[in-house]
Write a structure and sequence with these properties.
Helices cover about 35% and strands about 20% of the residues. The chain is α/β, with parallel strands linked by helices. It has a single domain, classed as Alpha-Beta Horseshoe (pyruvate-formate lyase- activating enzyme), CATH 3.80.30.30. Helix 10 runs parallel beside helix 12. The structure holds iron/sulfur cluster.
Length: about 325
């Protein structure tokens, strides 16, 4: 991340979190702005180049503290499924990431009024009076920014007080500090995205290797936290059958299928508008220039490829005893 400039919304002038973050990263300049979109939505820049100089934007969210997810967008067995956006953009740089096409710039936005997000979830909970699932911030990697703002810590503490909510914290990081000094909480699902080493090396730059992610996940698993593994996206490569089967049999060494919360799987897919934007930035990406099928605003592998990938991975998982599988297709 570019430590030279931090953009801060003027209304955060007296926010204690701002001082803590500035003390940590010691930027050489601070620029005060009216609204985070002034920077995030700048047009005409080169996204790939800007990623090398990714700036930090500190902001205050005024509304939209959560969204209801369509039943088509998730596979978890919860009737009421929501997600929120505590931060925008990511410190990592996965080649398949939709964020590259969703926002004009890669600058990292952190909303510092996390308490308003938690209050909104609490109001929702009182209205629903039923169990519900809240995925925390898929538009970033939350644990990877925990050193800047303790989102995970604050949400875990909230979840401990409200048995109706189940929160999911998904990451590709190897960071353990946000859970290692706490007792496991039944309604907090810690979820690690993993892929075979070769896939990660090729398509997931800046992320810790899957081996260290698995180590962090297995630590949480051993401690008794509900742990989910996400093999998503499954990437179609010439030797994917052998690559994914070997990878999955290795997972069995670290996780007890009975105690694991589940394994979520899904194949490469993307909103078509985002795909068009990203292809403009990545004319040389074999992964993104695959001749995807398009339907209802989404691009994905042809049906027979999707079926083969899902079947291969599902069969390999079942062979190792992993039966709680959530399939996104
Ligand atoms: S870790 Fe997730 S959010 Fe971050 S770049 Fe990779 S796919 Fe995108």
């Amino acid at each position: 991340m570019n430590k030279r400039i931090v953009y801060i919304e003027r209304q955060l002038l007296n926010h204690s979190g701002v001082r803590r973050i500035l003390d940590k990263i010691k930027p050489s300049a601070v620029e005060w702005i009216e609204h985070y979109k002034e920077v995030l939505n700048q047009r005409g820049g080169n996204w790939r180049l800007q990623k090398q100089y990714q700036s930090l934007i500190l902001a205050h969210r005024k509304d939209a503290f959560y969204y209801e997810a369509s039943p088509l967008t998730h596979s978890i067995e919860f009737k009421h499924f929501y997600y929120n956006t505590l931060a925008i953009n990511c410190l990592y740089d996965c080649e398949y990431c939709y964020l590259q096409g969703m926002f004009n710039t890669p600058h990292l936005v952190l909303f510092l009024n996390n308490n308003d997000f938690i209050k909104a979830a609490d109001t929702l909970s009182q209205r629903l009076q039923k169990p519900f699932y809240m995925a925390l911030s898929y538009d970033t990697d939350l644990p990877a920014v925990e050193h800047l703002y303790p989102y995970c810590d604050e949400w875990i503490r909230y979840a401990e007080t409200n048995p109706l909510i189940t929160i999911e914290i998904r990451t590709k990081s190897s960071i353990t500090s946000f859970f290692a000094n706490k007792n496991p909480v039944n309604n907090v699902v810690l979820s690690w995205s993993v892929n075979p080493e070769d896939i990660a090396r090729r398509f997931e730059p800046l992320t810790p290797s899957p081996a260290v992610r698995i180590k962090a996940a297995s630590q949480a698993h051993e401690m008794g936290w509900p742990v989910m593994l996400c093999i998503d996206p499954i990437v179609y490569t010439r030797d994917f059958n052998a690559v994914y089967s070997t990878f999955i049999s290795n997972l069995r060494k670290y996780f007890d299928p009975i105690r694991l919360y589940g394994i979520s799987i899904g194949t490469m897919r993307m909103n078509t508008d985002y795909l068009t934007n990203i292809r403009n930035q990545r004319p040389d990406s074999q992964l993104l220039w695959y001749p995807f099928e398009r339907k209802n605003g989404h691009a994905f592998y042809p049906k027979e490829v999707r079926q083969e990938l899902v079947e291969t991975v599902t069969n390999a998982l079942k062979k190792e005893g992993f039966n709680r599988i959530f399939v996104y297709d």
